[in-house]
């Protein structure tokens, strides 16, 4: 049975308007929304043809634009706005802080060789021959490769040796994970190999483009050689330091914890999941092991069967509302490869034993489903926001929620896989905080994860940890967001008693937009204890006075 509307009114007596809706009394809110649009246009480039925006003069102008945005925000007075309006104000404030953090601390254009590599990495991921329109766009990307990498060499004045070694690895090797690459049974060896492969295909199918392809290939090889030559002189660690990490957690992620509390929470969840894993392993010791998938056809069949069971359980227990126009199926996040018969990375070990866990987290009702609903949020500030602790916290929460809801009752050995995945997610917090504190190298953090996480191996560990070095806070968000969501659910269930409805609660989370859970909690419950200090930092004023 489907609910046709979100039951937000039943969930929150403190709200007089729908979640996320600004009111007519929120004077200046449109100026806030316009400012948010301008801020989104300041995102760093992601394609080679846009790399001129990384020139020194362009970056200087970007920094000025960020400071101008802060001044414009300060000129607005949200004291009399609704809670929803105040939340939007904090979202724009956090966005400005994130842009400022890039200029003050992470500075990927000067510290991160992988940032520049990623601008050109997808150029070879193309099917030839191309149509006229596609061809023109692709030729612009191809022609921009040499200039992009020459600019990278000039810009990387603070390059980290840790990230440079990773960039060289990606240039020369298939990483075993291959996310984003076109599927090949025998993939090319790194970005250098992909450009060589591209030029071979161009010579056969589009020979008019061979010269610029060879120039691009030579530029990629030159970038690798330059990094290798520079490596001995580069600072070793890519960590940003605990103080910077704490500022980021508080002022960009809007998390109500300091770094020590975050590390403690991660340790507590790691041991809890490890304990649960051992208990269910012991419970299941007489049961046969789950059989690994042996073919692409079997993988697809298992994935579709898992999705059918997930959807049926959601409908039967009314766990959330599925829109009438929901796609019939969602893509998987783990693809079949003959390599997986003998050499599997962590998620393949999980997914090819049972398809439930990864499909829940990554597809339905996790990321893909969540992202679909986020696009339908009418508030333009929220629909354009993507807090990773909210996104990953929701998807991680769903894993244990489905266990408790009984999804694996007929496949008890699948419980072990769920807890193995949760152990992995919890282990990231210690690894991330220690790397940024300079107490662990990436290799040491990888060995730590391999030691403590079932099925863990080097390739997936390196892939994950690279992301946490390059995007601080990403690794911690899975567990921290889950903890915040669980706290909010407990509070609402206690407050509403018999009127608490789990499905309606989930609907309200999804309807709020992909915004930090501290703000979701404030809007849903009216409890402002987690946002008092954030409000004071953003406005210089006491929140109590603004709520009178």
Characterization of the model:
This protein is an all-alpha fold. Among the domains are: 121 residues, no CATH class; 225 residues, no CATH class. The chain has 26 helices and no strands. α22 packs parallel to α24. The two termini are 42 Å apart. 45% of the residues are buried. The N terminus is likely disordered.
What is the arithmetic mean of pLDDT?
A: 93
Shape estimate: globular
What is the rounded Rg? 24 Å
The computed structural class is mainly alpha
Provide the low-confidence segments as ranges. 1-17
Concise structural overview:
The protein is mainly alpha-helical. 63% of the residues lie in helices and 0% in strands. Among the domains are: 113-233, no CATH class; 255-287 and 294-485, no CATH class.
Give me some keywords for this one.
single chain; disordered N terminus; globular; 548 residues; mainly alpha
Write the layout of secondary structure elements.
Elements: H1 8-11, H2 29-40, H3 56-74, H4 83-106, H5 108-111, H6 113-120, H7 132-155, H8 161-172, H9 190-205, H10 210-230, H11 242-251, H12 259-283, H13 296-317, H14 346-351, H15 356-362, H16 367-374, H17 380-383, H18 388-405, H19 414-437, H20 442-452, H21 458-470, H22 474-496, H23 502-511, H24 517-525, H25 532-539, H26 543-547
Helix pairs in contact: 2-3, 2-4, 3-4, 6-7, 7-10, 8-9, 8-10, 9-10, 12-19, 15-18, 18-19, 18-22, 19-20, 19-22, 20-21, 22-24
């Amino acid at each position: 049975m489907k609910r046709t509307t979100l039951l937000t009114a039943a969930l929150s007596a403190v709200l007089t308007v729908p979640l996320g809706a600004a009111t007519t009394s929120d004077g200046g809110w449109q100026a806030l929304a316009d400012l948010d649009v301008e801020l989104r246009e300041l995102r760093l480039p992601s394609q080679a043809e846009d790399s001129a925006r990384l020139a020194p003069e362009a970056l200087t102008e970007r920094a000025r634009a960020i400071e101008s945005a802060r001044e414009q925000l300060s000129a607005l007075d949200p004291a009399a706005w609704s809670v929803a309006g105040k939340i939007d104000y904090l979202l724009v404030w956090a966005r400005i802080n994130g842009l400022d953090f890039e200029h003050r601390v992470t500075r990927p254009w000067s510290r991160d060789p992988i940032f520049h590599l990623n601008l050109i990495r997808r150029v070879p991921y193309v099917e030839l021959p191309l149509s006229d329109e596609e061809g023109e766009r692709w030729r612009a990307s191809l022609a921009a490769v040499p200039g992009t990498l020459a600019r990278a060499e000039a810009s990387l004045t603070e390059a980290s040796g840790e990230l440079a070694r990773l960039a060289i690895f990606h240039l020369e090797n298939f990483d075993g994970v291959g996310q984003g690459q076109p599927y090949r049974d025998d993939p090319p060896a790194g970005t250098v190999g992909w450009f060589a492969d591209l030029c071979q295909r161009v010579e056969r199918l589009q020979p008019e483009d061979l010269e610029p392809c060879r120039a691009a290939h030579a530029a990629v090889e030159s970038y690798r050689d330059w990094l290798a030559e520079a490596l001995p002189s580069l600072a070793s660690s890519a960590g940003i330091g605990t103080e910077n990490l704490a500022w980021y957690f508080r002022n960009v992620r809007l998390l109500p914890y300091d770094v020590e509390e975050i590390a403690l929470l991660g340790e507590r969840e790691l041991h809890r999941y490890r304990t649960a894993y051992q208990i269910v392993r012991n419970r299941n010791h007489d049961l046969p092991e789950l059989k690994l998938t042996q073919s692409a056809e079997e993988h697809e069949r298992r994935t579709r069967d898992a999705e059918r069971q997930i959807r049926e359980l959601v409908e039967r227990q009314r766990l959330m509302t599925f829109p009438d126009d929901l796609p019939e199926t969602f893509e998987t996040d783990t693809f079949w490869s003959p390599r997986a018969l003998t050499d599997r990375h962590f998620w393949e070990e999980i997914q090819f034993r049972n398809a439930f866990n990864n499909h829940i987290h990554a597809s339905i009702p996790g990321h893909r489903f969540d992202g679909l609903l986020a696009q339908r949020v009418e508030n333009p500030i929220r629909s354009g926001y993507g807090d990773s602790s909210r996104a990953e916290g929701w998807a991680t929460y769903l894993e244990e929620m489905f266990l408790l809801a009984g999804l694996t009752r007929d496949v008890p050995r699948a419980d072990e896989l769920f807890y193995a995945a949760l152990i992995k997610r919890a282990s990231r917090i210690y690894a991330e905080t220690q790397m940024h504190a300079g107490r662990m190298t990436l290799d040491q953090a990888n060995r730590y994860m391999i030691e403590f996480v079932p099925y863990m191996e080097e390739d997936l560990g390196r892939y994950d940890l690279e992301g946490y070095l390059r995007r601080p806070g990403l690794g911690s968000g899975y567990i921290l967001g889950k903890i915040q969501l669980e706290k909010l659910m407990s509070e609402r269930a206690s407050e509403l008693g018999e009127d608490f409805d789990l499905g309606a609660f989930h609907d309200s989370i999804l309807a709020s937009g992909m915004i930090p859970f501290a703000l979701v909690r404030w809007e849903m419950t009216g409890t402002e204890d987690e946002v008092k200090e954030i409000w004071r930092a953003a406005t210089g004023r006491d929140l109590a006075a603004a709520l009178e």
